[in-house]
Write a structure and sequence with these properties.
Number of strands: 0
Biased composition (Polar residues): 128-144
Distance between the termini: 72 Å
Structural class: mainly alpha
Helix content: over 70%
Shape: elongated
Strand content: under 5%
Region (Disordered): 122-144
Pfam families: Retrotran_gag_2 (PF14223)
Low-confidence stretches: none
Length: 144
């Protein structure tokens, strides 16, 4: 790195050279922004991915876009997250849309809400059911 800035004579020249080296020129920045926007537009929660993993992946894309000068409103981020979830989450996302002001809902809050729901669903799936309809369905499926 030093070899690239040793010919600079002022702190301003050094700073500008370092920016150019680390960030690239305008064309490079534009290409990075295009790639990051494509990642954002195509992001979906993967099969078997936890909400924490999806949050980390989604946040990384948003941070990358922010560093490149692209910002999204709370509403845009919330809607994008909800569209990126599998169909099993449709009921929960509809409930969030109806009960929350998406303009004020921060990204970490929506994911906290979704993680709590995921935890609840996991806990319920581990508990044995004692309801009669479930027993009836089980007996029908095993007798067929």
């Amino acid at each position: 790195m030093f070899s690239k800035i040793k010919t600079c004579t002022t702190a301003k020249e050094i700073w500008e050279k370092l920016i150019q080296i680390c960030e690239g020129n305008d064309e490079t920045k534009e290409n990075k922004l295009t790639v990051a926007q494509q990642k954002y537009e195509s992001i979906k929660m993967k099969d078997g991915e936890t909400m924490v993993e999806f949050y980390e992946r989604f946040s990384a894309v948003v941070i990358e876009l922010t560093s490149l000068g692209k910002e999204y409103s709370n509403r845009e981020l919330a809607l994008k997250v909800m569209r990126a979830l599998p169909r099993e989450w449709d009921v929960k996302t509809m409930a969030i849309r109806e009960s929350k002001d998406l303009n004020k809902l921060e990204l970490h809050d929506i994911f906290a809400n979704l993680k709590a729901c995921e935890f609840e669903l996991e806990t319920r799936s581990e508990e044995p059911s004692t309801s009669q309809p479930t027993k009836l369905l089980l007996s029908r499926s095993t007798s067929q």
